[in-house]
Design brief:
By secondary structure, the chain is α+β, with helices and mostly antiparallel strands. The chain has five helices and seven strands.
Length: 165
């Protein structure tokens, strides 16, 4: 009888094998990418939006208008999930899901800290000449910071699968 080639997963729980270490999560989150931010609408449906993000107090955070749907949702229910992903083929998919409680930050210094973080990640190196651009970007904005309760990760590159297709 010929030996069978194992199929993707082959019914085996590979969760532990594809889990990222804390250092891998930190490196992944510090790469430049958008995230999907999910909050709960008034009717319980999920409000999912692509967002640029930065860091405040070591936490993932976004800037948004105070009257945005996501801000209104957080005021009603602080539950928030953020998903960060990368890869096109199954064998290269990797991602991080952060689940927790959102906190609205209105402290001008913290808002500016996030503004610099976002500017640096998506536009380029920040210096004092960029301050007016960051201030315009933050006009009438608040910060939503995620306090993480649970982290879920996956990195299919660890499976060593050949490229598909």
């Amino acid at each position: 009888m010929a030996e069978e080639t194992p199929a993707m997963g082959n019914g085996i729980n590979q969760r532990a094998q594809i889990k990222m270490s804390d250092a891998e999560v930190e490196e992944f989150l510090n790469e430049r990418r958008p995230m999907t931010m999910c909050t709960l609408n008034h009717d319980g449906s999920i409000h999912a939006v692509a967002m640029w993000y930065g860091f405040v107090d070591g936490c993932i955070a976004v800037e948004t208008k105070a009257k945005s749907q996501k801000a209104r949702n957080i005021l009603r229910n602080a539950t928030m999930t953020c998903m960060f992903e990368d890869g096109d083929g199954y064998e290269e998919l990797r991602g991080v899901e952060l689940v927790g409680k959102a906190e609205i930050v209105e402290d001008p210094e913290k808002i500016f800290e996030l503004g610099v973080s976002v500017f640096s990640r998506y536009y380029g190196e920040y210096n004092d000449e960029m301050k007016p651009f960051v201030e315009v970007m933050l006009n009438k904005r608040i910060v939503i910071k995620l306090n993480v309760d649970r982290t879920v990760t996956w990195d299919h590159r660890k499976l060593g699968l050949p490229p598909m297709g």
